[in-house]
Design brief:
Number of strands: 12
Largest sheet: 10 strands, mixed
Radius of gyration: 19 Å
Strand content: 15-25%
Helix content: 25-40%
Order of helices and strands: EHEEHEEHEEEEEEHHEHHH
Length: 295
């Protein structure tokens, strides 16, 4: 079920917030949107909890699903209910700073070749970066650019490969050209797939450091779980087959083997009284992904 928009006037931006937990973190997320300096936007919350736990208020519309349809399908539902020329997506466990939307819109309006923008996503209560855009590894896996680095390392507006779906900004024209999120991914990697399809279609991505959000990393799905591992690995393979050219696809298993190797070393280092090299953590961060794509 959903609540339809009663006004014929369309806002400049629609902010889509998919939620599964529908708990106090969502309330904090929506409060942060109430404090935006840019006023011409609407919010569509897609409630995947199955509990009809979210109530409409002010500028917030609700799409309530009877079960969890996944991140991509939730975004697609809300997109089809909107007409705004720009669409943002924000995780329900993210807090947008007041200039978030204003900074993104200002950046993309100045560049008609830019179809998507990456926010400066910081770890909540930490100050370090969660992501400054995303990188694609040659085995089809993806990782956050700048993860755990200082925000000062990415303090200037610059080209990025693609944005993280935790806080992304899209041009409607681009999405109507390339298509929406592939709902077959269900959870994880769907933002990478969409970003790659946009890049293959010659749309640019811009990292906007003034657009800041604080992210409670993996609050909804958990930092590590068997379910997360399953979807990440399954979707990595799906993404590689779908998007990588054949020569790179044939090499992907070798890069995967290297990534698994560094995963094992990193896990050993975290064990008490481990004899693993102390440099394993740094090597894991810098080389586990292997070489990255730069379209």
């Amino acid at each position: 079920m959903h609540q339809s928009r009663s006004s014929e006037i369309q806002p400049a931006v629609t902010v889509i917030v998919p939620t599964l937990a529908a708990d106090e973190t969502l309330a904090e997320c929506l409060t942060s949107l109430d404090r935006q300096t840019f006023p011409d936007f609407e919010v569509i919350v897609v409630d995947n909890s199955g509990r009809h736990a979210v109530k409409p208020h002010d500028r917030v519309r609700i799409i309530a699903n009877e079960s969890n349809v996944g991140f991509g399908a939730a975004f697609n539902q809300a997109f089809r209910e909107s007409m705004s020329p720009f669409v943002a997506v924000l995780n329900d466990d993210a807090i947008a700073q007041p200039h978030w939307l204003e900074a993104l819109l200002t950046a993309v309006e100045a560049r008609p070749d830019v179809g998507m923008c990456a926010s400066r996503v910081q770890l909540a209560g930490d100050g370090r970066l969660d992501s400054a855009g995303m990188l694609l590894c040659l085995d089809g896996s993806s990782r956050q650019q700048g993860h755990l680095e200082s925000p000062e390392s990415f303090s200037r507006r610059q080209e990025a490969l693609l944005p993280s779906g935790s806080a992304a900004f899209y041009r409607r024209e681009m999405l109507e050209e390339i298509g929406l999120f592939d709902e077959a991914f269900f959870l994880y990697c769907e933002d990478t797939d969409l970003g790659l399809r946009a890049r293959w279609a010659a749309w640019e991505c811009l990292y906007v450091p003034e657009a800041v959000v604080e992210h409670r990393y993996s609050h909804s799905a958990g930092q590590a779980s068997a379910l997360k591992a399953y979807y990440v690995e399954r979707n990595r393979l799906f993404l590689a087959v779908k998007n990588l050219p054949m020569p790179e696809l044939l090499l992907a298993p070798f890069y995967s083997a290297a990534r698994y190797f560094w995963h094992v070393l990193f896990a050993m280092e975290k064990r008490p009284n481990s004899n693993a090299p102390e440099t394993a953590r740094n090597n894991y961060r810098s080389t586990s992904c292997g070489p990255t794509w730069n379209l």
